[in-house]
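Form 12-C: Joint structure prediction
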Amino acid sequence: DTEVTQTPKHLVMGMTNKKSLKCEQHMGHRAMYWYKQKAKKPPELMFVYSYEKLSINESVPSRFSPECPNSSLLNLHLHALQPEDSALYLCASSPTGTSGIGANVLTFGAGSRLTVL
Amino acid sequence: GENVEQHPSTLSVQEGDSAVIKCTYSDSASNYFPWYKQELGKRPQLIIDIRSNVGEKKDQRIAVTLNKTAKHFSLHITETQPEDSAVYFCAARGGGFKTIFGAGTRLFVKA
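Section 2 - Result
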């Protein structure tokens, strides 16, 4: 399995809802990432987990809450979002992300397209 | 932190011509430079990458060059085909986990 799988593909939620995005990989990668991508813009890093520990939080608002239950799964919990949070949320993984050939090569999932009403 | 600038933002070429996309980075500690292709509605996919100990790398019609002194790296696509039409992102990464992307180049290949 050489893929990163994200669910759901599409999500529409109101500003008072609580929802979660899910990401799964079975490549044995130990670093997992959440990126946010607005239309016609590059992916922007939100969070990085390394060996199931949060390594980077790019000053993301607390209405986004990441969780890494195990080395294969990554969740993004959403609560009280704003319309400007509407975007494509991309999950990615890399072998380790620290050093070594191929360690930091990102494999992206297909993304979850979020619309906040 | 790292900043990556990418030019041009849009590039239109005739089928069979070459396309060149250029990027500059700011952090001299960056040592890994991937290029991603993103088709409309699809995920970014790695097409080629280069590490700081190498000046040039080629894979069929795609090549990347790196000038560490000038902090420049470029993507070269030869014999372009309509299926090369997409958005291309350069990126730079240092010793940590942060892969920082350029703003993207929308490439149109006209048949």
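Section 3 - Comments
The mean pLDDT of chain B is 94. Chain B touches chain A at residues 32, 34, 42-46, 49, 89, 93, 95-104 (CB under 8 Å).
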